[in-house]
Amino acid sequence: MVRGVGEPGRRPPGPAAGLRAQGVLRDGSLVDDFLMSLPIGREVARRALAVLESA
Questions:
Q1: CB 19 within 8 A of CB 27
Q2: Among residues 40, 11, 16, 36, which one has the least CA distance to residue 25?
Q3: Average pLDDT in the 42-54 region?
Q4: Distances, alpha carbon 3 to alpha carbons 8, 9, 42, 50, 55, in Å
Q5: CA distances (Å), 15 to each of 11, 12, 19, 46, in order?
Q6: Euclidean distance between the first and final Cα of the chain, in Å?
Q7: pTM of the model
Q8: Which of 2, 4, 7, 36 has a 20 to 30 Å separation from 24 between CA atoms?
Q9: What is the pLDDT of residues 11-36, one digit of tens each?
C-alpha cells in the first residue's frame, strides 16, 4: 500500500482493471510485442487457410 492510500482509495478488480504481460528475453531485455504477434498471426492464418481449403 502507498502511504496515505487506504481502503477507501482501493477498487476491486473488474472489467476496467487491465492485465498486461511483458515478454522478457534471457538477457533481461524486454521483448517487443511484434516478436510474439507475428508468429501468432501466422498460426491464425495457417488455421484459417486449412479450414477454407477443406470447405
A1: no
A2: 36
A3: 95
A4: 13, 11, 47, 56, 61
A5: 11, 10, 10, 32
A6: 56
A7: 0.47
A8: 2
A9: 666 666 666 778 888 999 998 878 87
